Amino acid sequence: MVQIQLKNLEKVYKTGKMEFLALKNINLEIHEGELTAIVGPSGSGKSTILNMITGIDRPTNGKVIINGKRIDNLKEDQLSKWRGENVGIIFQFFQLFPTLTALENAMLPLDFARRGKVDERRRIAKRNLELVGLGDKLDNLPSELSGGEQQRVAIARALANDPQIIIGDEPTGNLDSKTEAVMFELLQELNSRGKTIIYVTHSKDLAEKARRKIVILDGRIANT
Question: Could you tell me the pTM of the whole model?
Fold first, then answer.
């Protein structure tokens, strides 16, 4: 089943009188349960595509349709609610709160969504941390964790609301090759559980491990 559709997508960024066409007539379909890598040179438009899929940014022209729902014309409050329910995002720089424990960081999306009682939120966050192999690090602060462990917390946080789609923007960019391999195994495990995984990467090895590779050059799809 087609889960994500980008139709005739264009994105123009304006700086003063200057305009930059970041995406040029992008047409792309991603099916439910795919494990997809998006690759290309810096500035080619990879992260912009992720921003379109997550609703972090909106297209100048074209449509973004996810699970049959057009999201690019939603109001901000509707979009925020939709994103919280449907998409988990893993960032390159982890984006953990330094004064919160691993458990508290993994609970944040649940807190923002006010999902259930505190005990239920703790149970869900604990379960996700155990899933990523950090069941013994619940009370550790980010400063007490390795880079790989911090990224695992970020993955557990992305899973908080059990989203159908997991987006990674250079999710292993700050990790060594050994830890990168471990992280990818975790993404594969999530994919085997039915999650649609889409990630941007500069790592050739990581790109080749995906079931599908999309190449972006100068804002256009060069290969799918």
Answer: 0.90
